[in-house]
Structures
1.
Amino acid sequence: MPLSCLRRFVNAPLVIVFWMLWGSDIAASAERPTGNARIAVAANFRNTAEAIALHLEARSDYRYDIIVGSTGKLASQVINGAPFDVLMAADRVRPQRLVEEGYAVAGSQRTYALGELGLWWPGAGELFAVGDLSMLNPREVCLANPALAPYGSAALTVLREAGFSERYLAGLVRVDNVNLVTAMVTQRQVRAGFIARSALVIAAKRDTVQMDETEILWFSDHEPIHQALVLLDHAQHNPAAHFWVEQIDHPAVRELIRADGYQLRPLESVGGG
């Protein structure tokens, strides 16, 4: 037998063994698309978004960067050219506006969570009402900035419906986002604040907040806060961003959202925001 043939004969089993050991993994790796996406997230949804990112990264080769801020600031950054791929807002208005103005992909917006507003007033006693805040100096009451944060806008509506004067409302302590309200009340920098249910659920999980449910007035009879996402124009051809948007409706992801204190819309009514 010629030497060259002998070499091929000897090496062939080695090639077969190599393919048996590593070939299937190489093929599987080649089939898993890779890429990164930048997800701009309303502050109240930060912890949940981070949990979703870990879940999706464990099931793909995609990687996600979570950028956090108030909805208003994030939307403004999109308009000014920030390279975000998905916006997860705390309202439906800004995602729709970004679509209308050409900054986001038409038809990609959808409601991913329903948030609930509450008034947290430690030491107020049981069965207090919104109107009882009139006993406090407005500098003792905190809300997220209504111009930037949907939870703050909802709080302002509640106060106006309760009959508070514009002078009183102008004196309220305003912070960038609803998570900061929880921190302000926890640190006793204010006596009462309008918070998101999700913030207290997450804080309770981490045992970072001591609270009594009788200290919180939930506005369950009000319209929930519809939090919508939208695929941004920057990400039209980004598979990692598309994967994020698609997986928001997956049962495992929806359970992560529900477990953090949000309500969920039925799947048949999720699309379109």
2.
Amino acid sequence: MTASSVAIYKSLGLHTVVAALLLISVSFSPDPLPSLPSNAPLIEATFIDAQKIADTKRAQAQAEAQARAKEAERQRKAQEAAAQKRQQALAAKRAKAEREAKAAEAKRQKELERLAAQKEKERKEREAREKAEALQKEKDAKEKAEMERIMQEQLAQEQAAQQARRRKQVLTEVERYTALIQQTIKRNLYYDDSFEGKVCRLNIKLATTGFVTSIRVLGGNDALCRAAESAVRRAEELPVSTAPDVYEQLKDIETSEGSTKSFFSSVKSWFQGDI
């Protein structure tokens, strides 16, 4: 209840009390009222209609109720509008979040597809590279093997040629030193006419310096063999080559069957009387 309503109610109550007092004084006074002098001041009385007051109060209460209802309705609508606005904002935010999530997922899927494609491309390139490298290695291996085969053949041919040349050279050297040994022994041999037509075979072993380490009679005329042995001993050292392969052919000179180590078998006229 507002302050103006309280004031109205107080005013109405006061006027009601005054009116009641006046009615009582008029209705129940036994004596007539004395007439007032002409110069007496007049008092005006105001009649208060209680029904009107009640109607006014009711109307005012209805107006206040309507105002309150209108305000409540306004507040309700405002709250509903605010709630709807919040819902719309929340829905917009949710929709935005969903769009962003979908965009992020699409971007992620696209990136995964790109990475998968790149990985597949790298795999194919790696396989192609490995295949090419394997083919190249196989080709290189074949070429290397062929080159090695050719080199081995050339080396074998060269070695065979060298060996042939060396064998020829060794034979030549053996023949040369054989002649030198023969000449040395001839110089130290005391020849006798009785040796004519006689044969003697000896085995002579030489050190690398040509020093005679062993003389052994293999057979033949005794006199010729003694003379030949004495001739070798007087020489003490016979000519030998410093080349190992040539020395191998001269270090053990003997007349064994089929042996080429002996200059006696190579030069059959030795100690056969025509020395």
3.
Amino acid sequence: MARWMAGQTLGMMESPSVSSDMTDTLETLPFEIKNVIASRARMGLIALATDHIIEYEVPRLIHPISGAQIYTTRVPMEPKVTPQTLHGMKASLTDAAKTLLPGVQFNVIGYGCTSASVIIGELEISQAIQLAHHKTAITTPITACIAALKTLKATRIGLLTPYVEAVNQPIREYFKQNNITVVRSATFSEIDDNRAGMITPLSIKNAVLNVFSGLDLDLVFISCTSLRVAELIPELETNLGIHVTSSNHALAWHMLRLSGVLDSIPNQGTLFMS
């Protein structure tokens, strides 16, 4: 048996010597770059910090198109939806836009708030976002709604919102200024955006059918990106016999069209076939 002596090191405990001519070199490997997931359209989306629904609905409306991809960021917003809190988002828009893939060109960027698009103004929103993303097409839900109305040749609409009257009134006035007649409007009158995002699709469906059935309308517009309704639009159109669109529905369609993607998408309402 081997004996341990002071000052001695057992052979089995010795560290192997390393030859001085053995060096670790980092090899640089070749690679290729290919834009696969956004090969047809790279789209940015600025969602409100309080929005529960837009990131659920918009990608589902866009992703039937292979090669169309959406990238999302958020802008600060208080849960209480008033003209003052909506206008307050303007100061944060450029910084929010800067977090969308810095240094990468987008086909289009959508700002995800219908009411703020009216309160702040479409031009002001576009200018704020384009400070971060130059030469990029910008749209908003209200911009998309007007484009949809023109495409569908609709001038008489029903309007459903979740907003309080201080927010509803400027939106009705906006439609009037764009030569759109709001024949009838209705609201859930919910000031808290967190609660608006939890209004059930069944509640929205019942409201649309109860309020707008039988009226002389070309289209029903369901305003607010926080309302979950896009999946119901084909059914609502069948029941009402007219066109139906919503903030997220129109926004997704317009972002595709501004990106040059003109494909028809079945089972998403008449707008997506236009």
